[in-house]
C-alpha cells in the first residue's frame, strides 16, 4: 500500500533522510523508531507532501506521489495525518473538526460519517463541544477520527501518545490501534519509545542518522539485532569484551557460541540485565553484590569485583520478584546465552 524507494530529504546542505526504502502492506501497522533527530518525522512529512524529497520515490496503492518528475499536492494524496499536538481547530466544534478534512462531495454523499466516527470513539454527546472543553485523551480521539474521516488509504501518526499522561497512555494506545485496525487502514507511526513500538507494531523500521538500520518484526529486532546500536536501543545492556578461542567466544563471565568470527578476533558482547543469573556456586565468575534495588515485579542487582572499590565497571542483573542479597555478598554470575549478542569490536 505504501512504498518508499531511495527517499532522501535534506535541509540546505544537511541531510535528514538518506536513501530510505521500505514497504507497508495494506492494513499493516509499521513503526518508524529511532532517537530524536534521526529523520522519522521528516519521513512522515515527505509522505504527506509537507516536505519535498531531494531524491527517491513515494507511492501509495501503486500511485506515485513524489519522484523526480514532480509531486502530488497534499490534499490529493488520500493520506490522513495525526499530529503530535493533535492540531484541532479551537474555533470549531468537535463535529466540525472531524468533518474538516472531508471534501464537499464526501459530506454530501456520506452524511452520517461524522456521527458514525463519533459513535466509534464514544463522543457523539460532545459533538457540539469545543476542543478546550475536552480532556487530552478526548482530544486525541477526536484528532484520530478526523484523520479517518476522508477515508484515507494511509494514516500517518507522529508520536500520537507522547503528550498524554502515563496513566492514560496505555489504554488510549490500545483503543487507537483497535479503531485503526477496525477501519482497515494502513498505518505508519513514528515513536522514539522502544516499548511502544514493540507492543504496537506489526513491523518496525529502526532508523539512525536518516537511514534504516534494521527492519522486521518486533521479535526479530529485540531477539536478533543486527548490531550493537539495535541491541542497546531496546533497553539497558551490559557490555564486555570477548575473544574467539577454539570456536567459542571467551569472556570474563563464561563462554558463548561463536557466530562466525575468525579465531583470535576481538569482539564485543552485549547482555541484557535479565540475561545474567546469580547463584551461590556453579559456572561463571565470582563477583560481589554492590547494591540491590526492588522495582516491584523485579529487582535490579548491581555487581562488581569489589563493592568497596569506587570507579570500577559494574554489571547489572534484573531478577524476578524480591531478591534478598546483602551488599558485599559473593555470588557466581553466569550468562543466559539467549540474551547475549556478539558483535565485532566497536569502531
Ordered list of secondary-structure elements with their pairings:
Blueprint: E1 2-11, E2 14-24, E3 29-33, H1 40-48, E4 55-60, E5 63-67, E6 70-71, E7 79-82, H2 94-99, H3 104-109, H4 113-120, H5 136-148, E8 154-158, H6 166-183, E9 186-191, H7 194-200, E10 203-208, E11 211-216, H8 218-223, H9 228-233, E12 238-245, E13 248-251, E14 254-257, E15 266-271, E16 276-279, E17 285-294, E18 298-304, E19 315-320, E20 330-335, E21 340-343
Parallel strand pairs: 3-9, 3-10, 7-8, 8-9
Antiparallel strand pairs: 1-2, 1-4, 4-5, 5-6, 10-11, 12-13, 12-15, 13-14, 15-21, 16-20, 17-18, 17-20, 18-19
Helix pairs in contact: 5-6
Please give a quick description of this structure.
With 347 residues, the chain is α+β, with helices and mostly antiparallel strands. The chain has helices at residues 40-48, 94-99, 104-109, 113-120, 136-148, 166-183, 194-200, 218-223, 228-233; strands at residues 2-11, 14-24, 29-33, 55-60, 63-67, 70-71, 79-82, 154-158, 186-191, 203-208, 211-216, 238-245, 248-251, 254-257, 266-271, 276-279, 285-294, 298-304, 315-320, 330-335, 340-343.
Amino acid at each position: 500500500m505504501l512504498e518508499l524507494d531511495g527517499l532522501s530529504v535534506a535541509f540546505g546542505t544537511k541531510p535528514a533522510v538518506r536513501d530510505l526504502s521500505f514497504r507497508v502492506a495494506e492494513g499493516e501497522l509499521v513503526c518508524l523508531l529511532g532517537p530524536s533527530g534521526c529523520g522519522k518525522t521528516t519521513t512522515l512529512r515527505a509522505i504527506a507532501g509537507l516536505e519535498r524529497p531531494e531524491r527517491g520515490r513515494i507511492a501509495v496503492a501503486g500511485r506515485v506521489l513524489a519522484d523526480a518528475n514532480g509531486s502530488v499536492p497534499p490534499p490529493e494524496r488520500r493520506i490522513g495525518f495525526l499530529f503530535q499536538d493533535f492540531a484541532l481547530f479551537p474555533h470549531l466544534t468537535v463535529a466540525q473538526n472531524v468533518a474538516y478534512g472531508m471534501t464537499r462531495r464526501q459530506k454530501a454523499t456520506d452524511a452520517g460519517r461524522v456521527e458514525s466516527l463519533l459513535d466509534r470513539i464514544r463522543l457523539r454527546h460532545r459533538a457540539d463541544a469545543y476542543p478546550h472543553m475536552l480532556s487530552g485523551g478526548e482530544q486525541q480521539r477526536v484528532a484520530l477520527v478526523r484523520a479517518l474521516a476522508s477515508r484515507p488509504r494511509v494514516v500517518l501518526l507522529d508520536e500520537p501518545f507522547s503528550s498524554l499522561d502515563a496513566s492514560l497512555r496505555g489504554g488510549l494506545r490500545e483503543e487507537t490501534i483497535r479503531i485503526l485496525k477496525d477501519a482497515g487502514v494502513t498505518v505508519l507511526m513514528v515513536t522514539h519509545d522502544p516499548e511502544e513500538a514493540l507492543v504496537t507494531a506489526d513491523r518496525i523500521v529502526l532508523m539512525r542518522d536518516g537511514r534504516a538500520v534494521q527492519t522486521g518484526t518486533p521479535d526479530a529486532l529485540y531477539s536478533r539485532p543486527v548490531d550493537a546500536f539495535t541491541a542497546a536501543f531496546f533497553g539497558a545492556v551490559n557490555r564486555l569484551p570477548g575473544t574467539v578461542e577454539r570456536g567459542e567466544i571467551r569472556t570474563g563471565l563464561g563462554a558463548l557460541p561463536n557466530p562466525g568470527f575468525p579465531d583470535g578476533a576481538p569482539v564485543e558482547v552485549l547482555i541484557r540485565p535479565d540475561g545474567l543469573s546469580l547463584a551461590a556456586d556453579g559456572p561463571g565468575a565470582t563477583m560481589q553484590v554492590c547494591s540491590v534495588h526492588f522495582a516491584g515485579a523485579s529487582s535490579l542487582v548491581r555487581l562488581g569485583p569489589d563493592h568497596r572499590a569506587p570507579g570500577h565497571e559494574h554489571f547489572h542483573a534484573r531478577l524476578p520478584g524480591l531478591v534478598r542479597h546483602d551488599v558485599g555478598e559473593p555470588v557466581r554470575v553466569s550468562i543466559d546465552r539467549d540474551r547475549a549478542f556478539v558483535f565485532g569490536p566497536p569502531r
